[in-house]
Amino acid sequence: MTEKRNFRQNAYYHVIMRGNNRRFIFRTKEDMVELERALMHAYLKYPFKLLAYCFMTNHYHLLIRAEKDPLSKIMAIVNRRYSDSYSSRYGHIGRIYQKRYFAKEVDGPLGLLTVSSYIHRNPIETMVPMVAELADFPYSSYPLYVNDTLPAPPYLDRSIMKELLPHGFDKTNAEYARYCLEYRVNVEEDRHVPDDGVPEM
């Protein structure tokens, strides 16, 4: 029997969803667009707020807060919609995810800074970095902080992280992006070790 998980309303969670058996399920630009569409579809039904996201090849990360409805409803829509799309496009039969999504509550300003920085640094923390410059990785919210004049999806809130920056940083999104580059951090996540390749840019 699957253990029931309790989530606090209006709390932020670090969510990770992994492909089954370390398989690449977000390999191409089309895959990434489909995942974005799944997030938007869920957002329109059950509004939520993201402070950071990053789509890798065999998993994705979200720093998410449900607005009114349970996180489980949001994740069910995102994962089911993407799974259906993936199965249709690739003729896949069977499950594509390893297990239920990992979710850990993130506490306080330092926790949000730590986890968001960890999420954003994923593309350069692989055995072979996916990009030379983190701002060049297009499947992450990081470039949208580097240049906050770029249009962002409605579920991404870029007004919060800059206000949490410690002394020595200006309260701007560009400075938050600098914080992510300067502070390499580790956070608790599920025990599966990522095995990423480079997605189609």
Structure summary:
With 201 residues, the chain is α+β, with helices and mostly antiparallel strands.
Structure description:
This protein is an alpha+beta fold and 201 residues long. The protein has one domain (12-182): Transposase IS200-like (Alpha-Beta Plaits, 2-Layer Sandwich), CATH 3.30.70.1290. Helices cover 33% and strands 14% of the residues. The chain has five helices and four strands. It has helices at residues 29-45, 71-90, 108-121, 142-146, 173-182; strands at 12-18, 48-55, 59-66, 102-106. The chain has a four-stranded antiparallel β-sheet, sandwiched between helices. A hairpin with a 3-residue loop joins β2 (48-55) and β3 (59-66). α1 packs antiparallel against α2 (71-90) and α3 (108-121) crosses α5. The longest helix has 20 residues, at 71-90. The protein is globular. The termini are far apart. The model has no long low-confidence stretch (mean pLDDT 90).
User: Helix/strand/pairing class, anyone?
Assistant: alpha+beta
CATH topology: Alpha-Beta Plaits
Within CATH, the superfamily carries the name Transposase IS200-like
Number of strands: 4
Span of the ends, CA to CA: 40 Å
What general form does the structure show? globular
Instruction: Note the quaternary state here.
Output: single chain
> How many domains, in number, for the residues?
1
What is the CATH architecture descriptor? Answer: 2-Layer Sandwich
What's the pLDDT, averaged over the residues? 90
